[in-house]
Specification:
The chain has 10 helices and 13 strands. It folds into 3 domains: about 70 residues, Winged helix-like DNA-binding domain superfamily/Winged helix DNA-binding domain (Arc Repressor Mutant, subunit A, Orthogonal Bundle), CATH 1.10.10; about 120 residues, D-Maltodextrin-Binding Protein, domain 2, CATH 3.40.190.10; about 100 residues, D-Maltodextrin-Binding Protein, domain 2, CATH 3.40.190. The protein has about 300 residues and is of the alpha/beta class. Keywords: Activator, DNA-binding, Transcription, Transcription regulation. It comes from Ramlibacter agri.
Length: about 300
């Protein structure tokens, strides 16, 4: 990795305090071991091949994992401490940040929790690359390499449709309606488009936006209606906008907690995961996050 970072075997040898010929031999041995060329050599130095770049990236991930495993062995299990990065979409952070941070501070003062907000479409990749340790995922995602545990089910509502407030509205009612929708890729948009196509409903999407707050502002300005969960409205129905539950069919999405299968599960990460699950479950029984309920337990669990 030092050779790649310095762009020169000579400079890398100086940084590593080893002889240049010895380092050259080690690089050749590594290339023989993996069966391909990792570095492209010239009179101006060395640059990694495409395979070399990927090899270097994975080597860094492996070293990071080894450091994490070493830290697990040194951590006090009775009083876990460390740094945990929680990845989440902005709407989920809006509902969870305060109760979760308070719970972590109260029970595990040695743990520092970092909240990293990102569009939901990027969270899975960030988790698998080690940018976040755990994440709250909204909607259905490809779960290869991840352990995904659905905790809540979140209903979708039609917001800003004139003449529809406080009750229910059929999906067919949105045929031809002016709509402000999330920009693709977005799990909510995918769900909405799929159901509209299945029923032959064709809304008039006049504007797309990546931010839920921008979408709500556009709805307030009369640009069009939208389909959102209550978490994007702060958890409760706003007084200045008509909100109706979407039915026939009713649309909902899972709220899940995900971790990377290959990543070490340190005591401080497991502690935060337990508090995150507890905080989410409390939302299903409270009034601050409307339109959510506990995820249905599998039949096998109910029969146990």
């Amino acid at each position: 990795m030092t050779v790649v970072e310095t762009g020169s075997i000579a400079r890398a040898a100086a940084v590593l305090h080893i002889a240049q010929p010895a380092l050259s031999v080690q690089v050749r041995q590594m290339e023989d071991l993996v069966g391909c060329q990792l570095l492209s050599r010239s009179s101006r130095g060395v640059v990694p091949t495409a395979t070399g770049l990927e090899f270097c990236r994975r080597a860094k991930e492996t070293l990071k994992m080894m450091d994490a495993l070493r830290a697990i062995g040194q951590e006090d299990l009775s009083s876990p401490s460390g740094h945990v990065v929680l990845g989440t979409a902005a709407s989920a952070a809006n509902m969870l940040a305060v109760p979760l941070v308070n719970a972590v501070r109260e029970r595990y003062p040695g743990i520092t929790l970092e909240l990293l907000e990102s569009p939901g479409a990027h969270l899975g990749e960030m988790l698998l690359r080690g940018r976040v340790d755990i994440c709250v995922m909204l909607g259905e995602y490809e779960s290869s390499g991840m352990q995904v545990l659905p905790v809540l089910e979140e209903d979708l509502f039609v917001v800003g449709l004139r003449g529809e407030a406080g009750g229910e509205v059929d999906l067919d009612r949105l045929d031809g309606a002016r709509m402000v929708m999330p920009a693709r890729p977005n799990s909510l948009r995918t769900l909405f488009d799929r159901e509209c196509a299945a029923r032959g409903v064709t809304p008039q999407v006049v504007t797309e936006a990546s931010s839920p707050w921008t979408m709500v502002q556009l709805v307030r300005a009369g640009i069009g209606a939208t389909v959102l969960p209550m978490s994007m409205l702060g958890g409760t129905q706003p007084a200045d906008l008509p909100v109706a539950r979407l039915v026939n069919p009713a649309l909902s999405r899972p709220v899940s907690v995900a971790t990377a299968i290959a990543a070490p599960q340190s005591p401080h990460l497991l502690a935060v995961k337990a508090l995150l699950l507890e905080t989410l479950e409390q939302q299903a029984h409270g009034s601050s996050w409307q339109g959510v309920r506990a995820w249905p337990a599998p039949a096998a669990m109910l029969a146990a």
